[in-house]
């Protein structure tokens, strides 16, 4: 199983042709990774119907040649001397050789200042902004991509299993987050998918809780939201616990979120409007005593980027397709009291879904 | 000792006034941290002569109120409902209340696509791009900022001291990088300053070596480039070692880089053109047998961002000023053989410099 670079490129070229465009200028590091297998910095990509170019400089030349020129991908790597050639000049040289005139550029991934300096150096070309062109393509994952997320999710599952017995009275959020991050990397994760969210007690209600020195106390709600990275692809999972025995309100929160997530998962299949998956969870949350504390939005696409298309909320016009990989993460957040969220990563299949995260949804943990 | 938010704001307002501008739109997360004490995401700042506004949404409201509204800083935090109000509308509401017409915006920190959507919603305003406006101001650090970098550097010093005895025959680059990252965070670092560079043998010549499974062997050159983060401020230090006894060539490399760094450090003082500090190191590198393998550029500013103004290279027109904090990092990189770099963080003083990194520059380590 290999990344399908040829197919990715063919799809993009077809769309360029259909739009009457000669070339696409790529500025997004995520899209350079997707299309060129390039994981470094300070590089710019150009795709035409016959050519594939990566402009970088001496600092990343060796890495670019290693990553972008091999049996799977045949990029022409251009090493620019930044003291002698502007980026506009380097781009102009490629486009002139290619006789390209109608140029799309990733307007979402380049700053106004940088684009002004490039465009000023290329007055004879006709530019059109490309909006979410590769992002739309990236929504459907190939088998290799799904496998990377599956492996990242498996690492997260294992790391959580190592962490759980360490949740003891008095440990701090920060200690536990550090231990989780350490274990994921020891198990092969390339860094972490994002800054681990780990909150005890009332702090579990903060959607982006940054781990603090707060010690774990008996009866605390505990939220842990984290992920691993494999070959640039991310996982993203949340589990929620209670330290010791749950009281009636905590148990009702857990049961509500669990039922909401189960309903959303059960609804999933290719062809389903994403807003209906959101509504399946929403129906249960909104019928509960916690309706006014329900989180907004059901989940998001997942891949090279942590939050990518499609975004699944009530106002989303997306229809789910086979091999989308998305999170399903309903939650309840009661300010000053605590929060509870369950999040899994799933691949959409023609009839249902495949769950990529497998950690058990236990609630009570002995501390 | 506290961050000097009032003074930062006064300096910016004075410059706005001098340029005849009524407001600055701030899009850079680093600049929001510098001016508003805000460390979250999804926020936009507006500064006028009398007002200070942060526009965010419900996800970051609590964090923004906590960080940006206190005895040191009195921001008006605006919680935008993204389903009902565009960013342009939220900005328009503030600027209209403030009767602001001439608006600067951070053109280096907003995408073409996003700026087009904002500007289209504000047709009556007159926009001017602000280029490196706050970045220029951030070059001079206040005492509190220097203290954060000093603490980050101290954490890095301690973590390296813990790591060195673990450099043993057969350990991998990845294991050692993970251990270093773990120790820094255990000692209080907020994550790591950047992805730790740690290379053995020929891989030490890669300027951005990503730690691999390569095991440590007798006689290997070892390069370790890493840093800690305290209150958002970063350190950045490199030490180079040889596993066991250095041979003549390795010792000559070390002596050359050490002499080049010493010469550059000895030249430092407020009023010195940065290119002359670069030349002080360059004179020694270029007179050595390793001239053709010398790295380009002496160092860079350091603060909220890892690489920030001033950049110290041969073509740099910067004159060093008191309380600039910069790296001094000459190196030799021999492809296929190995590299060697020494890097310290220093604060420029009126007469000389204060070194913030203190790890000993030993070369031979027993493995």
TrEMBL record, chains A, B:
Domain of life: Bacteria
Residue ranges of every copy of the Peptidase M24 domain listed in the record: 147-349
Protein's recorded name: Aminopeptidase P family protein
Gene3D superfamilies membership: Creatinase/methionine aminopeptidase superfamily, Creatinase/prolidase N-terminal domain
GO molecular function terms listed in the Swiss-Prot or TrEMBL record: aminopeptidase activity; metalloexopeptidase activity
Pfam family membership, one: Peptidase_M24
Keywords assigned by UniProt, alphabetized: Aminopeptidase, Hydrolase, Protease
Cytoplasm as UniProt keyword: no
Domain (Creatinase N-terminal): residue spans on this chain: 8-140
């Amino acid at each position: 199983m290999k990344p399908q670079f040829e197919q990715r490129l063919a799809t993009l070229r077809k769309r360029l042709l259909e739009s009457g465009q000669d070339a696409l200028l790529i500025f997004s590091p995520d899209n350079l990774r997707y299309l060129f297998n390039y994981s470094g910095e300070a590089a710019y990509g150009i795709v035409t119907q016959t050519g594939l170019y990566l402009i970088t400089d001496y600092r990343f030349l060796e890495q670019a040649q290693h990553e972008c020129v091999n049996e799977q991908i045949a990029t022409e790597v251009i090493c620019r001397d930044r003291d002698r050639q502007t980026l506009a000049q380097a781009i102009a040289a490629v486009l002139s050789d290619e006789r390209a005139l109608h140029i799309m550029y990733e307007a979402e991934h380049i700053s106004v200042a940088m684009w002004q300096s490039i465009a000023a150096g290329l007055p004879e070309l006709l530019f059109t902004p490309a909006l979410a062109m590769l992002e739309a393509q990236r929504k459907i994952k190939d088998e290799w991509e799904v496998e990377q997320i599956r492996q990242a999710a498996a690492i997260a599952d294992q790391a959580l299993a190592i962490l759980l017995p360490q949740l003891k009275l008095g440990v701090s959020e920060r200690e536990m987050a550090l231990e989780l991050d350490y274990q994921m990397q020891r198990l092969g994760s390339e860094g972490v998918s994002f800054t681990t969210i780990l909150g005890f007690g009332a702090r579990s209600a903060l959607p982006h809780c940054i781990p603090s020195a707060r010690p774990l106390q008996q009866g605390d709600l505990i939220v842990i939201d984290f992920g691993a990275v494999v070959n640039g692809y991310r996982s993203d999972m949340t589990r929620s616990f209670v330290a010791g025995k749950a009281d009636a309100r905590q148990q009702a929160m857990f049961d509500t979120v669990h039922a909401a997530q189960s309903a959303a998962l059960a609804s999933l299949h290719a062809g389903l409007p994403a807003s209906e998956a959101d509504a399946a969870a929403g129906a249960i949350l909104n019928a509960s005593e916690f309706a006014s504390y329900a989180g907004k939005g059901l989940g998001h696409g997942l891949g090279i980027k942590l939050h990518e298309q499609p975004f699944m909320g009530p106002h989303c016009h997306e229809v789910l397709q086979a091999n989308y990989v998305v999170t399903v993460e309903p939650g309840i957040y009661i300010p000053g009291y605590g929060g509870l969220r369950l999040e899994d990563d799933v691949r959409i299949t023609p009839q249902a879904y495949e769950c990529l995260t497998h950690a058990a949804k236990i609630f009570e943990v002995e501390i």
